[in-house]
Amino acid sequence: MIDFSRGRKVKFYYNDKVIEAYEGESVLAALYAIGYRVFSYSPDGERPRGAFCMIGKCSSCLSMVNGVPNTRICIEPVREGLRVYSQKGFPEVPKVEEVVEAETIVLKPDVLVIGGGPAGLQASLTLAEYGLKVVLVDEHFKLGGQLVKQTHRFFGAKKFYGGIRGFNIASKLSREVMDNENIEVFLRAYAYGIFKNGYVGVAVRGEKPLNLLVRPKAIVAGVGASEKMIMFENNDLPGVMGAGGAQTLMNEYGIKPGERALVIGAGNVGLIIAYQLLQAGVKVHGIAEIMPKIGGWFVHAAKVRRYGVKIYTRHTITKAIGRDRVEKAEIAMVDEHFQPIPGSEKVFDTDLVLLAVGLQPNYAFFSQAGAVMKYIPELGGLVPLRTKYLETSVENLYVAGDASGIEEATTAFIEGEIAALSIAIKLGAGNNKTIKKREELLDYLWNEYRKSPVVMRACQGKLKATVSEEEMEKIRRGELDGI
Length: 483
Ligand SMILES: Cc1cc2nc3c(=O)[nH]c(=O)nc-3n(C[C@H](O)[C@H](O)[C@H](O)COP(=O)(O)OP(=O)(O)OC[C@H]3O[C@@H](n4cnc5c(N)ncnc54)[C@H](O)[C@@H]3O)c2cc1C
Ligand code: FES
Fold this sequence. Notes:
It contains eleven helices and 28 strands.
């Protein structure tokens, strides 16, 4: 069972109105629970925007928090007395005398791990086992990444948490990380880039903001992925939300995201979210899928069909309709060029349009660092080239998890561990047993796990993104462009 027990009651202010909330909630979740749907406006102040990603990766919830503009309130925890204002148009720059200056702290750990999802947690624990000092930073106010909203039991080997529910894995690993004396954790801590002298800049939000300058010997960046958007009329209307956004509301905070939903995309995420909506008492009008066939597993499709949910293949969304929030949505059949066929439109009364149209790896950190990137459709977008040991073209910068190409949590654990073992070997903390362990993991990943037809496409993508160590050396010397 998910633990929805509430934290301590706190009061904060939203546009000067007193709001009651519970510790552990984000500001946005607390506001959503009592009916707020508009959280910001387009820069011209004309178009309302609602919750979309719920993980700090879009700009739908930028607000003024305790005088700081452009704060993403979906990853801002509620606190007693917090003052939050919605923004319309560009916010005012705070007065110099009101700005709390950040204290600069220099840290020199063995390894900096960026991201506290499955990849980052596993990497941190493995590095700590080898006695390496780790600094782990995550921009959210809690650890776990996307695991915290996964309610199902994981498939696969026990070693990779098979049989345990995602949110339980998240709390187990988070506790282990927090209790580990070799790991120092900074939450609400955003790694914004690498300076030329090798220092990584990390901005830590809070009552006492910090400017961390971290000089590690190696970095594991497990920075995850973001949900994709698609083009249609009014796609920014409040009520159009990423599937993961709705999962966050339902599975993390116990909040019903809407009353009547339409899901776009019949891959596994779309099918699973439709089922979870039904369980939460939301009416699901249907699932529109642009391809002629359902992309997800038959067993998930059968589950939602049993509830009478229709799956419209060869259909896409053409518009969301409403003034300040979604009131209706229109879908239409598409021709062989994926263009809507006039006259085939269907309109549904709905307050929620959930987009389950795929994820794209978060690539900003690698691009800024100067890593050689490659666009690989099978992996969801731009990813850094890497060796099989997950080292990128920037020496000592490793990639793991969804940031290396969209797969799933199990591969994120495995990649986090491979990156960590590779660093342990490189820094002289490992031994022959470490090398053997790494080879066994690589063998399991490539010759067993990725042989499953379900992950075949991602596997092909990962092959395209992986170069030999000799090729990587040439890429570093500029003798091979790798793209
Ligand atoms: C909506 C959704 C549903 C899913 N359902 C399933 C499922 O049912 N089964 C399954 O196996 N997999 C599922 N997955 C996939 C699985 O959750 C991911 O593959 C896995 O979480 C990836 O792990 P990760 O560590 O790479 O990234 P994440 O779990 O995304 O963690 C990345 C972390 O990095 C932090 N971060 C990002 N950028 C920065 C930065 N610059 N500075 C500091 N911190 C940063 C983020 O806050 C986040 O905590 C789902 C994913 C999503 C999005
Ligand atoms: S950044 Fe808050 S909803 Fe996307």
